[in-house]
């Protein structure tokens, strides 16, 4: 049923009313923010500093995304010593001192505490997938908006940068803070690949078997994704600048920034849904993303010897579902069954080591399930789990491992793959995303690693890498290292980060 012109005319005042109320609330919040801002800056001994706010609810997780956050802040401290970096974190069980100590331990990054401040958010559970067993994307997005409201209620910065991928917070921050918004996106919340899997009814991490096997449920989910994609595009269009971590992510984000849906456009023009359009700022909006490859501490890893490596297959990844550690276990099982010499009682025993961070109870349960899977596959005596390892411990494994394994499908970048290559570990990664397009690519016309898709593919690639002639093996390790150090160093990240022009969007101190 279509709305008549009379309905539209009557609806416009109704959609303007909440917008006006929000504007009044925002003005009051900005006024009260001055006292909170003054207290924080005086407490740091920086009364005249500008504030850059980083929205990173899991800043203490210790993964590749966190390395981006802390390297960016370290760069600001070196080049812009008068700027205070504020991190909006949900790690309420920690303290500033403990977090900075972990940054030093995990990443070897030393930060000046006088220009770092933490705003701890109590509602982080609202963005956890466990809180939304159904309509997870929608639930987490709404939860992130509430979390952003909590953040702005505690402190409004001069510039807001989301470094975890919560684009729906942009509306809240722009409206309540009247400040510019930027982002560093590791992967889009929704992508055309996800829509394609639902449309083709392909089972996967984001499309359960119950839905993929049902025509009705698949159609319903496709409609849900279509609406979600529309609102996600509107959210990204609020940003003044966007950085991304790979060409894969850039292609998707650029497509989303320019996404349109004629039917939904009409619905948001000729109905009270026009209110949503009013939330979009009139300032400059990003029309494309800029690739800024994540930093890797390649200097220390590049010192590791390339010879005499142990027969260790190493995985370095947080124990999150999308990392697909189960495929690693199945691939290793197949390797041992196909080549018995690699078994513990064989002539050339091989070991699989899984190093990764566990953020919460869900991750801990996932590790327990993986241990059980290893037992069912009867490979537990050749598999070791190293949970929440310190940075030196991780380096120790990288220094002696022979092969690095990464099985995530459509990995947005793959900083763990870069670490493998810099450390001299032969990488084997899924043939998709960043590892396929940006990282494990030919260097001087020669390969720098291997790609695979199925457990059988991974097992075959591991066997190939383990049986390379000594001279060819050394050349491959050296090539991979040279490429990684040349392209993905911290120095390259800092140069690209600063050339992104983020500082030009920094509003005057409030």
Automatic annotation (TrEMBL):
Reaction equation(s) it catalyzes: an alpha-D-Man-(1->3)-[alpha-D-Man-(1->6)]-beta-D-Man-(1->4)-beta-D-GlcNAc-(1->4)-alpha-D-GlcNAc-diphospho-di-trans,poly-cis-dolichol + 2 GDP-alpha-D-mannose = an alpha-D-Man-(1->2)-alpha-D-Man-(1->2)-alpha-D-Man-(1->3)-[alpha-D-Man-(1->6)]-beta-D-Man-(1->4)-beta-D-GlcNAc-(1->4)-alpha-D-GlcNAc-diphospho-di-trans,poly-cis-dolichol + 2 GDP + 2 H(+)
Sorted UniProt keywords: Endoplasmic reticulum, Glycosyltransferase, Membrane, Transferase, Transmembrane, Transmembrane helix
GO biological process, any: protein N-linked glycosylation
Tree of life domain: Eukaryota
Chain ranges of the Glycosyl transferase family domain: 301-471
Transmembrane segments: 6-26, 168-187, 223-242
Topology relative to the membrane: Single-pass membrane protein
Pathway: Protein modification; protein glycosylation
Chief location of this protein within or outside the cell: endoplasmic reticulum
SUPFAM superfamilies on file: UDP-Glycosyltransferase/glycogen phosphorylase
GO molecular function: GDP-Man:Man(3)GlcNAc(2)-PP-Dol alpha-1,2-mannosyltransferase activity
Cellular component GO terms, alphabetical: endoplasmic reticulum membrane
Family affiliation: Belongs to the glycosyltransferase group 1 family. Glycosyltransferase 4 subfamily.
Enzyme class: transferase
Species of the source: Guyanagaster necrorhizus
Limits of the ALG11 mannosyltransferase N-terminal domain: 50-256
Record function comment: GDP-Man:Man(3)GlcNAc(2)-PP-Dol alpha-1,2-mannosyltransferase that operates in the biosynthetic pathway of dolichol-linked oligosaccharides, the glycan precursors employed in protein asparagine (N)-glycosylation. The assembly of dolichol-linked oligosaccharides begins on the cytosolic side of the endoplasmic reticulum membrane and finishes in its lumen. The sequential addition of sugars to dolichol pyrophosphate produces dolichol-linked oligosaccharides containing fourteen sugars, including two GlcNAcs, nine mannoses and three glucoses.
Protein's name in the database: GDP-Man:Man(3)GlcNAc(2)-PP-Dol alpha-1,2-mannosyltransferase
Compartmental location: Endoplasmic reticulum membrane
Pfam families according to UniProt: ALG11_N (PF15924), Glycos_transf_1 (PF00534)
Gene3D superfamilies: Glycogen Phosphorylase B
